[in-house]
Design brief:
The protein has 223 residues and is α+β, with helices and mostly antiparallel strands. The protein is built from seven helices and six strands; from the N terminus they run ββββααββααααα.
């Protein structure tokens, strides 16, 4: 789990994010920074069709709230700007990523926000994401999803139709989030391009899921 994430931009500016997690491992935002949340962060603004959160108990979208903590800093940044990223994990390990396109950093922030916040859709496949290392490769994400759904299928937790339903709801989350970010202001495209990266992976998995899941099941039988 990430303890801190620092981004050093080419102009020398450094941005450090220290995420807060509940005892259950749910990513939380700094409520102090959202005393007057912008409209695009409010739950009812472009609320996802599958969202089960109540506006009374959750006036703020948990995904948008996490992204809003970086909102001003990334709003005017270009997606292909190369940055240096330092990630410190709970076990004390430190990883350094050099010359990383900012859109890749944004995609990692989106992934964390969707799958490890209080988003009821992302939470349905949270277990597939939490064991991945920071900045996982495309094949690692697809493999993690395949293992998750293969285990559910083998344990009688739902087959292909349930998997399709989950991925369709997830695609809607990304679509609604894109609408939110379009209203976040700024001339930059880092967040939107980062969102496209994660959404494209979810769509790719949806198209290849039967083959990936069956391959995973066959590999487990071999083991």
């Amino acid at each position: 789990m990430i303890r801190s994430l620092s981004i050093r931009f080419s102009d020398g500016e450094t941005l450090t994010w220290v995420p807060g997690f509940s005892q259950q491992g749910t990513l939380q935002w700094s409520r102090l920074s959202l005393k007057e949340p912008p409209d695009w962060v409010r739950l009812e603004t472009f609320k996802c069709p599958a969202c089960t959160l109540s506006q009374i108990d959750n006036p703020i979208c948990p995904v948008a709230a996490v992204l809003a903590e970086f909102g001003h800093e990334l709003a005017n940044r270009d997606s292909f700007e190369n940055v240096r990223v330092v990630v410190e994990e709970d076990d004390g390990r430190e990883q350094v990523f050099r010359e990383v396109p900012l859109q890749q950093v944004a995609s990692e922030l989106v992934r964390l926000a969707v799958f490890q916040s209080g988003c009821p859709v992302g939470r349905r496949i949270k277990l597939a994401m939490v064991r991945l290392r920071p900045f996982p490769q495309r094949d690692e994400i697809l493999k993690a999803l395949a293992i998750f759904f293969a285990l559910r299928q083998q344990s009688g937790g739902g087959g292909g139709e349930q998997q399709k339903g989950v991925m369709a709801a997830l695609h809607e989350v990304f679509g609604c989030l894109a609408k939110r970010l379009e209203h976040a202001g700024g001339r930059g495209d880092a967040y939107l391009n980062g969102l496209v990266i994660v959404d494209s992976l979810s769509l790719l998995f949806g198209l290849t899921a039967p083959e990936l899941i069956q391959k995973t099941i066959d590999e487990c039988r071999f083991w």
